[in-house]
Design a protein that fits this description.
Rossmann fold; AAA+_ATPase; P-loop_NTPase; globular; ABC-2 type transport system ATP-binding protein; four-stranded antiparallel sheet; six-stranded mixed sheet; ATP-binding; 8 helices
């Protein structure tokens, strides 16, 4: 069962203030723009789902938010600082779609290494291992884990510092339904404590669990709203139909 990763005495900025502000973002590649004038805001204390088809620019947008993507035009501010600023290193957790973890370490050794880098308490390692359901694999080398288990280890690294902003690229891929449900419950608790969670996903059933949805296609923002408002706006019965209505209308 997932345990709380939140520090009870940790003080966050008031919920509702902007956690991310993007204005006219543009990222170019030789064959065209990956992000083409993207503007949006994400409020603190929310769980926001980033949805879009393959090639829509989701991963590039997440990389821009954490400051590892070169931007050709526009601005992006994260927690009051320029994206990628030194002040954000201990405040932003990032889990990439392809696990960026050391394969020759055990799960425990991997997390102990990153805990030392972040200056986390010793007990944090065992806590996040339990959170992502890797208790029985803690002494196994990362290169011997399944794809889904590697994704969990990658998520554990992002959770270590109890971040103010958690940026997750397809975090539940390879997870069984029970773990997926528990992870989303964790995201909800983090948001209730004032943290901000931004999750990209291609699973539209997960989209309905988000407080806000950010829909992208062809490097542009199609809509940002609550799932209920998107359904009402498109006259559809579920998020999947609303998404298809908006994306088909923009193609």
């Amino acid at each position: 069962m997932i345990q709380s990763l939140l520090e009870p005495d940790r003080r966050r900025a008031p919920a509702g203030d902007p956690a991310i502000i993007a204005r006219s973002l543009r990222v170019n590649r030789p064959d065209g723009a990956v992000l083409d004038g993207v503007s949006f805001e994400v409020r603190q204390g929310t769980v926001t789902g980033l949805l879009g088809p393959s090639g829509a620019g989701k991963t590039t947008l997440l990389r821009t938010i954490v400051g590892v993507q070169q931007v050709n035009a526009g601005t992006i501010t994260v927690l009051g600082h320029r994206a990628g600023s030194r002040q954000l290193r201990s405040r932003v957790g990032y889990a990439t779609q392809e696990p960026a973890i050391y394969p020759d370490l055990t799960v425990t050794e991997l997390l102990e290494y990153f805990a030392a880098v972040l200056g986390c308490d010793d007990g944090r390692v065992d806590e996040v291992i339990a959170t992502v359901g890797l208790d029985e694999h803690s002494r196994i080398r990362v290169d011997r884990l399944s794809g889904g288990q590697k994704a969990r280890a990658n998520l554990a690294v992002a959770l270590l510092g109890s971040p103010d902003l958690l940026v997750l690229d397809e975090p539940t891929v390879g997870s069984d339904p029970r773990l997926r449900r528990e992870l989303w419950s964790l995201f909800d608790r983090m948001a209730a404590d004032g943290a901000t969670v931004l999750v990209s996903s291609h699973m539209l059933d997960e989209a309905s669990r988000c407080g806000q949805l950010l829909l992208v296609q062809h490097g542009r923002v199609l809509a940002q709203d609550t799932p209920a408002n998107l359904r009402a706006r498109t006259g559809t019965d579920n998020v999947e139909e609303a998404f298809l209505s908006l994306t088909e209308g923009s193609s």
